[in-house]
Amino acid sequence: MNLWQLWLGLTVIMLAGMGMHNAGWLTGKEDEKYHLNLRSRTKTADGSYKVEEKKVVWEPRETAFIICDMWDDHWCKSAAARVQELAGPMNTIIESVRAQGSLIIHAPSSVTSFYEGTPQRKKAQLAKFAKTPKPLSTAERWGTTWCWPDKTREQDLPIDDSDMGCDCAVKCDIRDAWTRQIATIGMAPEDALTDNGQETFNLLAQHGIKHVVLLGVHLNMCVLGRPFGIRQMVQQGKNVVLMRDMTDTMYNPERDPQVSHHEGTRLVIEHVEKYWCPSFTSTDLTGEPAFSFKQ
User: Fold this and answer.
1) 41, CA 20 to 30 Å: which among 51, 56, 153, 236?
2) How far apart are alpha carbons 112 and 263 in whole angstroms?
3) Which among 82, 294, 73, 72 is positioned nearest to 168, based on CA atoms?
4) From the CB of residue 47, how many other CB atoms can be counted at a distance below 10 Å?
5) What distance in Å separates the CA atoms of residue 121 and residue 116, rounded to the nearest whole number?
6) Tens of pLDDT, residues 183-206
7) What's the rounded Cα separation, in Å, for the pair 261 and 204?
8) Shortest CA distance to 215 belongs to which of 193, 196, 235, 242?
9) Running DSSP on this structure, what letter comes out for residue 114?
10) pTM value?
11) Where are the domains positioned within the chain?
12) CATH of domain 62-286
């Protein structure tokens, strides 16, 4: 037996004893937990904000990922194109965290009827009722429950989205363009699907979820304001974070502060980090460079 055969034999014995999933010295993982670098912004004495980063370690089975409004189409052609570009990388991340035992909640607002009778929809509907620490929002926008900005804790958004944010050269007509979640993002039988705040809270309680990750679109509107979004989850006492490279905004650079679309998104991410919750990038989950749009 030569040295190579001896090394190979010892390796097989070692892996058999420890289990391949724990072979951190080969995979680069110390364990199967999430090691996240959370970025937030803290107000200083002079009124400015200081960037702070905190390392946390989370159990996958205590973590839920809520996918906000990644629809199959959008009335704004530019927004629809960015969702299509984002969906593939997002699906790769979702497949990975699902395999590690995290709860996946698909939340395509206003089109949940498309999924009526599916295992994912039934899972949300049948989750045991859990009383929320605070009353859920009863405000409305666009014919659905909404969580409006909380003036006691946040300033106005740093971008003007009063025109609804279409950044196409020729502005698109607002219409009901979506019928379902974009098919690029797969669903597994163990996933759940809802756009309802109470159903979301029921799922989190039933699965013993301590940490909630929001990803999807659009940050200045739905990711913040939906009944399963950042404002609601924070107000209900959940430990919430934003995956900041897995989002986009509705922002027209012709409006204040007249910066590029992606700079506008960056400003809204800063707003979230100041007033609502920390953020991290998918790099912490994949080890790959953070996602960025091609245009």
Assistant:
1) 236
2) 32
3) 82
4) 6
5) 6
6) 999 999 999 999 999 999 999 999
7) 34
8) 242
9) G
10) 0.89
11) 62-286
12) 3.40.50.850
